[in-house]
Design brief:
By secondary structure, this protein is of the alpha+beta class. The protein has 3 helices and 6 strands; from the N terminus they run E-E-H-H-E-E-E-E-H. A 6-stranded antiparallel β-sheet has the order 1-2-4-5-6-3. Strand 4 and strand 5 form a beta hairpin. The longest helix is centred in the middle third of the chain and has 18 residues.
Length: 187
């Protein structure tokens, strides 16, 4: 005789970076966790909620067809994310020295057009939202001077503790992310 058993899984809400409604920044537990920084003296420009950094293609980034190798675009995006984080007071080297890390768990790239040697371009980075341990971001690369679209990317970064396990984003980082987002509302 067969005995049937069943288990019921509790439905957990999932948040994806590509959902129609981006996740909201988590509120702070208390006002005492706010650490004012001179972090809002932004490096690079910000327009339409994006942090911008201008770069130029170097010859060694090209493939055998004379265009930027696809893998190099991920480096451009990483540079844009690091510059954005630095502009809001999060130094990636200090995070690393503390034993913590910010790791990319998902990254999707849509290639639109190639870049060639000597092309000048801008990497635009925007934070879509955060959860307790994740930061959702969107990035675009545009060729200068006419801002021809080159690439669109979306990704998720996860804050990790010193054992490389997901950990809550520190409150001062969440505050700085929220301040950047609030300053860019209405652009």
């Amino acid at each position: 005789m067969f005995q049937a058993t069943a288990t019921v899984a509790v439905a957990m809400p999932l948040v994806f970076p590509c959902s129609l409604r981006p996740p909201l920044v988590q509120p702070l537990r208390s006002a005492k966790t706010f650490k004012p920084l001179s972090c809002l003296n932004l490096k690079g420009e910000r327009k339409s909620g994006f942090h911008e950094i201008k770069l130029k293609v170097r010859d060694y980034e090209l493939d055998q067809f004379g265009v930027v190798n696809n893998a190099v675009y991920a480096n451009y995006c990483q540079h844009g994310r690091h510059e954005f984080l630095e502009s809001i007071g999060v130094n990636c080297e200090e995070v690393s020295r503390s034993g913590e890390a910010l790791a990319i768990s998902e990254f999707t790239i849509k290639f639109i057009a190639p870049l060639r040697s000597g092309c000048k371009f801008v990497v635009k980075t925007k934070i879509l939202g955060t959860t307790g341990v994740r930061i959702y971001f969107e990035q675009h690369i545009f060729k200068l001077p006419n801002e021809e679209p080159i690439l669109e990317a979306k990704g998720t970064a996860v804050w990790l503790d010193d054992k490389y396990r997901p950990a809550r984003i520190p409150s001062h980082v969440r505050v700085n992310l929220a301040q950047f987002q609030c300053q860019n509302v209405g652009f």
